[in-house]
Write a structure and sequence with these properties.
- The complex is a heterotrimer.
- Chain A is α/β, with parallel strands linked by helices.
- Chain A has two domains: about 1-215, P-loop containing nucleotide triphosphate hydrolases (Rossmann fold); about 220-300, 2-Layer Sandwich (Alpha-Beta Plaits).
- In chain A, about 35% of the residues lie in helices and about 30% in strands.
- Chain A contains ten helices and 14 strands.
- In chain A, a hairpin with a 2-residue loop joins strand 12 (about 250-255) and strand 13.
- In chain A, helix 2 crosses helix 3 (about 110-115).
- The mean pLDDT of chain A is about 90.
- Chain B has helices spanning about 1-15, 15-45, 55-60, 65-85, 90-95, 100-105, 110-145, 150-180, 180-200, 210-215, 225-250.
- Chain B is mainly α.
- By secondary structure, chain C is mostly helical.
- Chain C has one domain (about 20-70).
- Chain C is about 80% helix and about 0% strand.
- The model of chain C has no long low-confidence stretch (mean pLDDT about 80).
- Classes of the chains: A alpha/beta, B mainly alpha, C mainly alpha.
- The interface of A and B includes residues 70, 93, 100, 102 and 144 of A.
- Bound molecules: adenosine-5'-triphosphate (ATP) and magnesium ion (MG).
- Adenosine-5'-triphosphate (ATP) binds near residues 34, 39, 41, 42 and 81 of chain A.
């Protein structure tokens, strides 16, 4: 659905994108993460056809973004990072105005449906000039989806939203996935990425440093350490004995928690478990240590 | 397109742009005759003691024609100033503040957006020019005498109106090029007055939009033979300005900081 | 002599009446806005004085540059 190859973007004096390559398949939920100023919004602006690439190819849907005459030819739904509205118009009037671009009849039903979907039904007739940042964000989400597009690009959709709004956004993204839509969104809330994304792209200083399915990324970054808690605290003798087992490279005993570093997570795990059973040692917990996305992110961004 | 026009009308009403422009025209239409009749003579008398009634009349003009020509001139000079700074945000602000991003993403065409602005505010100014001229005619007629034919007044009002459409187009074009409201106002005035002076100095007014203003302030019974030519050149220039605006919009980078 | 001066003043007044009415209407409209919506660039009292005493142009200037961000 989206194919980006070697995308570069130079501003007057600043080289913001230095080779972004990304692939998004139809029906995929793509999480776009990176530090502040790494180039997420710049990339998404180009994907939306609003800004022109300095070099590189960028295909959205079936269209090449540098060969279109008007951004709307891409037929996508786009939520900018900081959506701006006419302050002298009401929420309803804005949606009415925007809907009219592609259909001649005003579709009152659809507009009201969208407004209540984003929780603005009570504010529909108020002028947007008086809206809070979060209310504008909600209205922005409604405008992005008003034409029911196949590809949806959301730049930090949950920024400025209250906790309920944030979970609403996640619900929306899963709804869109169920409808078979393709969604690309950027965010700083990595737990959200972990909850809904199929694929993750990590970008740092204008380069795509990692782009993988989420499951693969997590699997690759598993640390081969088992954390074991026994009923009776392990003594030094036990620690030494475990260390002698095949495949175990290191054992630590901190705060009554045994941490065994292994070479093969699967085989050595079974072996460890077997040992405890043989010794008739009661186990309280036996866990493979997990790296969360936060750790992976920090590792990727700083490591490479 | 209909929706774009509706939006611009809403903007004109809610931001009081229509009101400001209308009052601007009314101000000169009503005050100019009163000033010429009552206030200016008093001032002159106090400045130049012993001035005769005839000399006064020669300096200030006591005919309806003189008063209405002065009105046309005031609208061209000070009216243009008010219009330029009232409408300088018309498109420059929209580009600068990114309010056009969502409409464009939703599929609004550049031509529709630009034409709606020019149609709505151009028509408003055309209407205000006409109403202003008629009110000025009424006032100057009461205070002096009705020497001009109403047809020539209507014609002059409309000619001034067409000039105002040209001015609106100029504002839109500079707004798209400069993207800064105040600078747009200044550039609009500079190019409008610049053309006027060039036209006057080289005596090529009939080939420029400023010819409309000159013709309008004559209130001739029979319009100049070059009027049609001036009108078509003005329409041509308006079309060129719109084309420049659209080309520029097509190449624009949106959603910038 | 005295008679004609009186005539002229009344005539002036009659001609000025629409302007005064228009000005006052606009000034009141603007003053309501000043106290209901707030101002920018200058303070409320200054804007009120400008709207009241600068004939027609005062309210216009207020509407162009004095109004708090349009909403
Ligand atoms: N119009 C511009 N002119 C100059 N530099 C720009 C422009 N737009 C963006 N940049 C620069 O490009 C870099 C990337 O900006 P971008 O907005 O894409 O970051 P981001 O990843 O979206 O950050 P954030 O997480 O804060 O939203 C920044 O260093 C920014 O300063
Ligand atoms: Mg950003």
């Amino acid at each position: 659905m989206i194919q980006v190859t070697e995308l570069h973007k130079k501003f007057k004096t600043f080289h913001a994108l230095k080779g972004i390559t990304m692939h998004v398949k139809k029906g995929e939920i793509y999480g776009f993460i990176g530090k502040n100023g790494s180039g997420k919004s710049t990339t998404m602006n180009i994907l939306a056809g609003l800004s022109h690439p300095s070099s590189g190819k960028c295909i959205v849907g079936e269209k090449d973004v540098s060969k279109i005459d008007h951004p709307s030819e891409l037929n996508i739904g786009y939520l900018p990072e900081d959506p701006k509205f006419y302050p002298w118009m009401s929420a309803f009037e804005i949606l009415d105005y925007l809907v009219s671009a592609k259909s001649n009849r005003t579709n009152k039903g659809r507009i009201n449906e969208m407004l209540s979907w984003v929780g603005l039904e009570d504010a529909a007739q108020r002028h947007v000039g008086g809206f809070s940042r979060g209310m504008k964000q909600r209205l922005g989400i409604a405008t992005a989806l008003i034409h029911n597009p196949e590809i949806v690009i959301l730049d930090e959709p949950s920024s400025a939203l209250d906790p309920e709004g944030r979970s609403d956004v996640l619900r929306l993204i899963t709804d869109l996935k169920q409808m078979g839509k393709t969604v690309v969104f950027s965010t700083h809330i990595l737990s959200d990425v972990q909850k809904v994304c199929d694929k993750v792209g990590i970008i740092a200083t204008g380069r795509m440093i990692t782009e993988k399915p989420l499951s693969e990324l997590i699997k690759e970054n598993i640390v081969p350490i088992y954390d074991i808690k026994l009923k009776l605290p392990a003594d030094t003798e036990l620690t030494e004995k475990i260390k002698e087992l095949e495949g175990i490279t290191r054992v630590e005993n901190i705060n009554d928690m045994l941490s065994a570093t292994v070479t093969d997570t699967d085989k050595d795990g079974v072996r460890l478990m077997q040992y405890f059973t043989d010794q008739k040692l009661a186990i309280r917990s036996f866990e493979l240590r997990k790296n969360n996305l936060e750790d992976i992110f920090i590792q990727e961004v700083n490591g490479k | 397109m209909i929706q774009d026009i509706k939006k611009e009308i809403l903007y004109g009403l809610r931001s009081y742009r229509f009101l400001i422009l209308f009052v601007g025209f009314l101000f000169f239409a009503m005050l100019d005759p009163v000033m010429t009749k009552f206030i200016m003579p008093e001032i002159m008398k106090s400045q130049v003691p012993g001035i005769t009634q005839e000399a006064l009349g020669q300096m200030l003009g006591t005919s309806q024609l003189a008063v209405m020509s002065a009105y046309m001139n005031d609208i061209f000079q000070i009216g243009s100033l008010i219009i330029a700074f009232t409408l300088c945000r018309l498109i420059a602000q929209e580009i600068r503040e990114n309010t056009l991003v969502l409409p464009i993403c939703s599929g609004k065409q550049f031509a529709g957006i630009v034409l709606a602005k020019i149609i709505v505010f151009g028509t408003a100014l055309l209407l205000f020019s006409l109403i202003g001229a008629l009110i000025n005619y009424l006032y100057s007629g009461i205070l002096f005498s009705y020497d001009l034919s109403i047809i020539s007044v209507v014609r002059s009002g409309l000619l001034q109106g067409v000039y105002m459409v040209f001015l609106t187009t100029l504002i839109v074009m500079w707004g798209v090029i400069i993207k800064k409201p105040i600078a747009t106002g200044f550039l609009t005035l500079a190019s409008a007055f610049g053309l006027y002076f060039i036209g006057g100095a080289l005596q090529i007014d009939s080939y420029l939009p400023s010819g409309l203003i000159k013709e309008a302030s004559l209130f001739a019974v029979i319009p100049a033979s070059t009027l049609l030519q001036t009108l078509s050149i003005t329409v041509g220039i308006i079309l060129v300005l719109i084309a420049v605006t659209l080309i520029r919009l097509k190449k624009m980078e949106w959603n910038e900081r | 002599m005295i008679d004609t001066t009186f005539e002229i003043t009344r005539e002036i007044l009659l001609m000025l009446l629409p302007i005064i009415v228009l000005h006052l209407g606009l000034a009141i409209f603007c003053i309501v806005k000043i106290y209901k919506e707030g101002v920018q660039n200058l303070n409320k009292v200054t804007w009120t004085l400008i709207c009241l005493f600068v004939n027609l142009i005062g309210p216009i200037i207020f509407l162009i540059v004095g109004r708090r961000k349009e909403n």
